[in-house]
Design goal:
GO molecular function, one term: ATP binding
CATH topology of the largest domain: Kinesin
Distance between the termini: 24 Å
Helix content: 40-55%
Keywords: ATP-binding, Coiled coil, Cytoplasm, Cytoskeleton, Microtubule, Motor protein, Nucleotide-binding
Number of helices: 20
Radius of gyration: 36 Å
InterPro entries: Kinesin-like_fam, Kinesin_motor_CS, Kinesin_motor_dom, Kinesin_motor_dom_sf, P-loop_NTPase
CATH superfamily of the largest domain: Kinesin motor domain
Number of domains: 5
Largest sheet: 11 strands, mixed
Bound molecules: adenosine-5'-triphosphate
Number of strands: 22
Oligomer: single chain
CATH architecture of the largest domain: 3-Layer(aba) Sandwich
Structural class: alpha+beta
Subcellular location: Cytoplasm, Cytoskeleton
Main location: cytoplasm
Length: 703
């Protein structure tokens, strides 16, 4: 991501939130069917939704679904196991029958059109693992996702640019956030990148690879190449689960020759990794580590969404790299669409409710999109300046080039010239010839450079030939489609407004003929308030339960991670030589440079020196310096089975003892035995001490 110019004046625009519910998967059907059979006697939602035969597989499939989508109202209803159904409304809602094409036309198309007009745009898919985020963003061979559709849209627009005075430059980058490392998916070895900048001026990634593309097909190839490098794996919830958050960035620069202005639109297409419960995904070892990082980043994203929705003065963007990358998209200079993916299965009720709540909160986020005109970092401007410079260079050298390539015939030296002069004239001729050759080569090189730069730029076609006519027709059709979808969207909004205002209008227009009527009306309102209060209480209890479940999950995760850490420490204790240990302990993780660093205490402050007292001299003390304790290696000894026994003096017959033991020998034996006992006691007490170094290293290991 490159540093973009800060907005000047901006109109607030809310984040658009879309919900997409995928169909029930075969696995959910089978597992749910088994569960229904098990639970048929319990009073749960299965019973509430049940027909008469709970083991009938078809009826069971219907009853397994706790989500009902109302596309015409943009609403999602979730049947609650405790009685009170939940209803959420969004900018749009799509059920399992809706395809990506409809979704793109209705919601994403206007956003991509804004990007082509110089705005920043972001589409990000959020939701539990296996709910269809990758399916929605990338799609499959049969169902094209939003990303390739956006590519085609961009290129249809470029090919149809009416005027050849318009020049375009399209480039893409692809990065992923894997285990808190930002990796460049388009570089050969997926090099790690650093996020630079600050919260106030925005974050950016300066070194990521940017590939200039000249067609939608080329962009798809770039995306596939990046996908091959992306971290993916199998979990119990998803056969091909994304183990990283991926961001595909498209930059479209458009230069208008007449106005001499450049507009730069940036489109972030984000496929987040899904939140997951260890219990459900069956994650272990590496998957567990990934899951903990995924959940950590998503939790930071949730905190940012909550802070923005509540207009909190502090938004914790710095908490994770994901939120730093998405800073502009959430509350910044961007038009943003959040796609909340959910599954319909009762099995995932809690996760679905959590996703819907987050999505509902995100609706309140206000962004400040501004058209990016003539930003300093526009590559097109750079290319144009370079082309101009090269052209100027060529025209400066032209007179040299116009000289005859080689003299047609070397003029013979006049008869009276000496032999020496003849040689020097010939040498001059040879020198001139080689200079001309060199100049020629340089000119060719310069022209080649110009051609290479110009090839990167795409000139507006003018739409005169057959293909362009077809494209034009397509564009008109798309425009009509978008008009229709715009109208549909307005209808949904109207419907939502009508429903919301119905209640208040009824109250306002109600005239109370009698006192009894007023009492009835107020009783009715009170009942409604009580019902709402009940609903809120229920929600609170549910949230507490969800929080408890999450806490338990995190505790389990922590226990697993600590176990893993102990294993690694054991390996380190056994194999890292003693000399290297202090260095390992001094290593600190630096968030800014994104790397582990060894504090050079020789250069900064020797460990042996005591920290200075503020303003006054410290009295001398026998206690060791404070700093020293930070670098002490305090390891818990590994309890190993004893392979030796303590020495105990052999029992001797009392009559033989004085004869065999020389004077003083007995005391010596007793002293050795007592030292050994003290050593064992010391070892035991060391075992009982808390392992502070482990804890310290533990934090480091988790980082
Ligand atoms: N709308 C849909 N219609 C049909 N199948 C779908 C739909 N959405 C998702 N699926 C299927 O569900 C499965 C999981 O989808 P996908 O991999 O996109 O989930 P995800 O949310 O990206 O998961 P993760 O977070 O683990 O990467 C896939 O087999 C996909 O084909």
């Amino acid at each position: 991501m490159e540093k973009s110019a800060r907005p000047r004046t901006a109109l607030n625009e809310c984040v658009k939130v879309v919900v997409r519910c995928r169909p029930l998967s075969e696995k959910e059907k089978n597992e749910g069917y088994e569960e229904v059979k098990k639970k048929r006697t319990e009073q749960t939602w299965y019973e509430r939704l049940s027909t008469k035969t709970p083991v009938d597989k078809k009826a069971c499939d219907v009853r397994l679904q706790v989500v009902k989508v109302w596309p015409e109202r943009g609403a999602v209803q979730v049947y609650s196991p405790k009685g009170q159904d939940k209803m959420f409304t969004y900018d749009a809602a799509y059920d399992c029958t809706a395809d990506t094409q409809t979704m793109y036309d209705e919601m994403v198309r206007p956003l991509v059109a804004s990007v082509l007009d110089g705005f920043n745009g972001c589409v990000f898919a959020y939701g539990q693992t296996g709910t269809g985020k990758t399916h929605t963003m990338e799609g499959t061979a049969d169902h094209e996702g939003i990303i390739p559709r956006a590519f085609r849209h961009i290129w249809a627009h470029i090919e149809n640019s009416a005027s050849p005075d318009v020049t375009h430059l399209v480039s893409c980058s692809y990065i992923e956030l894997y285990l808190e490392d930002v990796r460049d998916l388009l570089s050969k070895d997926c090099k790690k990148l650093t996020i630079r900048g600050q919260e106030l001026n925005g974050f950016y990634i300066p070194e990521m690879t940017s590939v200039v593309c000249k067609s939608a097909a080329e962009m798809v190839r770039v995306m596939r190449a990046g996908n091959r490098n992306r971290a993916a794996g199998r979990t119990d919830m998803n056969e091909h689960s994304s183990r990283s958050h991926a961001v595909f960035l498209v930059t479209v620069e458009t230069a208008h020759r007449k106005t001499n202005r450049i507009r730069v639109g940036k489109l972030n297409l984000v496929d987040l990794a899904g939140s997951e419960r260890q219990r459900k995904t069956g994650a272990s070892a590496e998957r567990l580590r990934e899951a903990s990082r995924i959940n950590q980043a998503l939790s930071s994203l949730g905190n940012v969404i909550s802070a923005l929705a509540e207009n909190s003065p502090h938004v914790p963007y710095r908490d994770s790299k994901l939120t730093r990358i998405l800073q502009d998209s959430l509350g910044g200079n961007s038009k943003t669409i959040m796609i909340a993916n959910i599954g319909p299965a009762s099995y995932n009720y809690d996760e679905t409710i959590t996703t819907l709540r987050y999505a509902h909160r995100a609706k309140a986020i206000k962004n400040k999109p501004v058209r990016n005109e003539d930003p300093k970092d526009a590559k097109l401007r750079e290319y144009q300046a370079e082309i101009e410079r090269l052209r100027a260079l060529i025209s400066q050298r032209r007179p040299v080039d116009r000289r005859p390539r080689r003299p047609a015939r070397r003029a013979p030296a006049p008869a009276d010239t000496s032999e020496e002069e003849t040689v020097s004239i010939e040498n001059e001729n040879i020198l001139a010839e080689s200079t001309i050759e060199q100049e020629k080569k340089q000119m060719e090189e310069l022209e080649q450079q110009i051609r290479a730069l110009e090839e990167r730029l795409v000139q507006g076609g003018g739409g005169k030939d057959l293909i362009n006519n077809l494209n034009e027709a397509q564009l008109i059709l798309e425009q009509r489609n978008s008009e229709i979808t715009e109208r549909k969207k307005r209808e949904v909004e109207m419907q939502q407004k009508i429903e919301l205002e119905e209640e208040t209008t009824a109250i306002v227009t109600n005239t109370f003929a009698t006192l009894q009527q007023e009492v009835d009306h107020k009783t009715q309102r009170l009942k409604k308030c009580l019902a709402r209060y009940g609903g809120l209480r229920e929600e609170m209890v549910e949230q507490r339960e969800a929080h408890d479940a999450e806490r338990r999950e995190l505790e389990a995760l922590q226990a697993a991670l600590i176990a893993e850490l102990r294993r690694r420490l054991l390996v380190a204790d056994s194999f890292v030589p003693l000399a290297g240990r202090p260095a390992v302990l001094r290593a600190r993780y630096n968030d800014d440079t994104d790397a582990w660093e060894l504090r050079d205490h020789a250069g900064v402050e020797p460990l042996s020196t005591r920290p200075g007292a503020a303003g006054r001299r410290r009295g001398s003390s026998a206690r060791p310096a404070r700093r020293r304790a930070e670098n002490v290696l305090d390891l818990t000894p590994i309890p190993l089975p004893a392979t030796t026994r303590l020495y105990s003096a052999p029992r001797l017959a009392p009559s033989l003892a004085p004869a065999l033991a020389p004077a003083g020998r007995k005391e010596e034996v007793e002293a050795v035995a007592s030292v050994a006992t003290v050593a064992v006691a010391g070892r035991k007490s060391a075992r009982a001490r808390p392992s502070t170094a482990h804890h310290r290293l533990g934090t480091a290991g988790v980082r």
